[in-house]
Amino acid sequence: MLEIKDSVGLTSRIMAAVRAIETQRPDRLFSDPLAALLAGDEMIAEVIPKAKEYENRGTPFVATRTRFFDDFLMSVAHQRSQVVILGAGMDTRAFRLSWHPDTHLYEVDQPEVLQLKESLLENSQALCHRHSLSIDLKEAWSDLLIAQGYQIDIPSIWLVEGVFYYLSENEVHDLLKTITNLSAPTSCLGADLINTKLILQSDDGLSKYWRYGCEEPETLFATYGWKASVVHPGDEQAHFGRYTYKSPPRDVPDVARVFFVTALKE
Q: Distance between CA atoms of 135 and 140, rounded to whole angstroms?
């Protein structure tokens, strides 16, 4: 079996393991029948203790984030026929969400990640037109996207989940510039961000690779012509009865924060 050797690339299998664990819960927030296959038994066993810890703290972040962006995608998909998932990893939304059959969904990630994914999913049928683009986001991925049939003159949906905080500040701005240049008016974007405080207090596991913190996501996205709505996991729109930790109001200083962002290009 192929393996992912890159430490950040391994997050894709860890996320799949959390989704597999969530799928087995009677109160699951979503069902992902392919997650266990993509994660592997060994990774699932390794992740179970950490998943339980987050659940006991009232902060099941991955399950909450997955459900939040599932809902976002389905709420805007009826008006837009092309979807781009950047840093797609082991994402299975092409296989498990109720897409219109004419939808074109583009998954972009590092070659070794998507090579493993394709080998595991070779017998699975997507519910849309799925395009797998094996290229690093630091390369000229937009050319490949257009070559695969993406149309810059019609509205699109972007999902940038678990990506921004692994990039440098310059890379974040370069990525947003590229997304914006590829997006027709009324395109939509979903993303999660963290602030600098969270990076400073987190230095173990995957968090040691975090680089970019943002204090005001609304301002960041407005710079590129996107009108953003921002919530914390645990807010009314993003707890789903399971994420019970409530973040202090935004005007309270020196608080570690996670943001769920949905934005519309004006």
A: 8
Distances in whole angstroms, Cα of residue 34 to Cα of each of 42, 113, 180, 181, 198: 15, 16, 32, 34, 31
Q: Which pair of tokens denotes residue 185?
A: 């008016």
The model's pTM: 0.96
Query: What distance in Å separates the CA atoms of residue 192 and residue 54, rounded to the nearest whole number?
Result: 18
Who has greater pLDDT, 9 or 18? Answer: 18
- Among 211, 217, 229, which residue's Cα sits nearest to residue 257? 217
- Split at pLDDT 50, 70, 90, the class of 1 is very low
Rounded to whole angstroms, how far apart are CA atoms 182 and 154?
A: 10
Distance CA 230, CA 218 (A): 7
| Structure confidence by residue, pLDDT tens digits, 109-143 | 999 999 999 999 999 999 999 999 999 999 999 99
Residue written as tokens 């192929």? 2
Write down the mean pLDDT value for the chain: 95
User: CB under 8 Å to 104, separation ≥6 — which residues?
Assistant: 81, 82, 83, 128, 129, 131, 149, 150
* 233-253 as b/e: b if 16+ CB within 10 A: bbeeebbbebbeeebeeeeee
- Tens-place pLDDT, residues 75-103: 999 999 999 999 999 999 999 999 999 99
Q: Say what the pLDDT of residue 8 is.
A: 61
